[in-house]
Amino acid sequence: SQTIHQWPATLVQPVGSPLSLECTVEGTSNPNLYWYRQAAGRGLQLLFYSVGIGQISSEVPQNLSASRPQDRQFILSSKKLLLSDSGFYLCAWSPRALQYGYTFGSGTRLTVV
Amino acid sequence: GQSLEQPSEVTAVEGAIVQINCTYQTSGFYGLSWYQQHDGGAPTFLSYNALDGLEETGRFSSFLSRSDSYGYLLLQELQMKDSASYFCAAQDTGRRALTFGSGTRLQVQP
User: Fold this and answer.
1) Tens of pLDDT along B98-107?
2) With bands split at pLDDT 50, 70 and 90, how would you rate the model's confidence at A101?
3) CB spacing of A101 vs B44 below 8 angstroms
4) What residues in A contact B87, CB-CB < 8 Å?
5) Radius of gyration of chain B from Cα atoms?
6) Looking at residues B84-104, what average pLDDT do you find?
7) Which of A43, A49, A106 has the CB atom closest to B100's CB atom?
């Protein structure tokens, strides 16, 4: 069966520090991968999505970046965090042929102080 | 771009039926999904409609009217564990990722 792993679960980082969040999927090949961010009590904002290795689409201009170095690995990064980067970061995957039934990771709660 | 509107909060009693509405505006609509998210948890997929009509999955049903740009999630025989946030999400023909609504917080009271 397919599983998605996301870590760390919580993170407290100072302003100006770098960030690296990792997400891996097991049990499937060629998944679509997504990064969303959720502010407290709000909806999910799409940050990046990827349909293949090295293929990244960015939705919101910001100081975040994403990379997909392997088929089932998706990394979210920042060189210098801002206070406004605080939030709940969610990685998700969907089968290539079905682009609506997302499976989400357990999320990373990031607090920038 | 796309935008989806949902009520921010709905309250219902255990055993009742509740309907959560979603209206959308999109240039190339393809389908509407629904997700459930408990506090502190990740969203989980509930249902999907690409065609007009009702899709039933146990106690949950979802409806879509493409001509009205409208859909709803119907929850029957409400249980306390149904207290959660519910999100509609639209898929369009051009963008290969879902756009989510702001969510409806459902509170089920005894």
Assistant:
1) 999 999 999 9
2) confident
3) no
4) 43-44
5) 13
6) 89
7) A43
